[in-house]
Amino acid sequence: MQITFWGVRGSYPVPGAATVRYGGQTSCVEARAAAGDCIIVDAGTGLRALGGKLARESGGQPMHYHLLLSHVHWDHIQGLPFFEPAYIPGTQISIYSPVTAADELQQVIGGITRHEFFPMPLEAVPASFQFHQVEPGNDFSIGAFRVMPIALNHPYGSVGYRMDRDGSSWAYVSDTAPFTQVLHKQHFLSGPEPLTDDDRTSLGAMREALVRRLEGVDTVVYDTHFLPDEYARFPHYGHSTPDQALEICVEAKVRRLVLYHHAPGHGDDQMDQIAAMYLARGAGLGVEVLTSFEGMTLPIGPEPDAGSERKRERTLPG
What we know:
6 helices
């Protein structure tokens, strides 16, 4: 199994001169098995380039695609109207998301293609869509992939996913705050409030469940949007720091952490500094820390032999 990053930014896309090396598209990761089948995680603006590649691979023939959404904030769904396979008749697209009901998810996705916002409404797209509700603790299978949803601490809720396939495993943990201040049911604008005993119990259980799900995972892609001083100013935005991600990964005995969901204001030079700082900090804790960039492909599995070369390509997707 391997994963490829098609969008690594949070909040909104920032392609431009300051983000050439790490990329400016929002959240989208492709997980591909040795047999060639794949799962797409999140549908930010990075989905557009991935869709172009998938359409070329299929030769314009209809296929069945599976898309896991962490939640439906803009930076995780904006790429959907531009997903090229959706315009190939006969294509099937299964979308999985943590919402109260599958019909509500259809309304959310359909809402971004209303005629006021987009030239083609969802019901006119040639592909057929199936919507599935996911719930933390209720595991399911997509082909030979075993998928485990994980509750995260984000305004209005979010889920992460652990995926096992080909004897290896990786996890996608975005978006989430740490488990000390913000309860995922709180309103975004209210900011942190004093925690009740019930809040502390709920947050503690959420953190424990996350660590348990991540135990022994080879690679964890984690929301590390903020640096510590930034998090102190915006604790209610629902994002974490690399230090908070490392704490979770050390406890879960994860081999490799990938920093992800980069703040839009972090340009390439600052991202280089962050990458170097946390590569060194992770080494001291026994965790390999990499920093994601658009086009990066990582094999998921044990550390390769000394004579082999890890596939970590810096190529632009598309």
